[in-house]
Target: Cyclic pyranopterin monophosphate synthase
Amino acid sequence: MDLTHINEKHNPKMVDVGDKEITKRVATASGVIHMQKATKEAILKEKTKKGAVLQTAIIAAIMGSKKTSELIPMCHNILIDGVDIDIEEIEDGFKIIATAKTTSKTGIEMEALTAVSVGLLTIYDMAKAIDREMVISDIRLEYKSGGKSGTFKRS
Model:
């Protein structure tokens, strides 16, 4: 198995995608944040000191997706066609689902995963004054289509 981000001198490199075809690419990622019941209630009722937590997390997630190439060293800077963020209630917290789209030569999984991560971190940041025991977990790729590797769907 060849390592694509290592050159012949074994130094890191960014993969050259110049010869790849432009394709429509879609990726969906998800992750969860677990918390105390009182914390979840405070977030739902917008009773935290920092305001509208879930709406802020959505905006932060979108912003995070747009900054992915600045955060992940070997990630290409790509044009993002769109990002859609959904937050679902789960029994002991919230689940963020991010779907990102591009028409490009590479990418979009990392943008979806970064969106989820930043959204979850924003919830933590905005509610940590009332619950420092929150746990972020299960950040994962759910679906990806487009590009040479084809379609992936988590079973």
Notes: The beta strands are 23-34, 82-90, 93-104, 135-145, 152-153. The chain is about 30% helix and 30% strand. The chain has a mean pLDDT of 94.
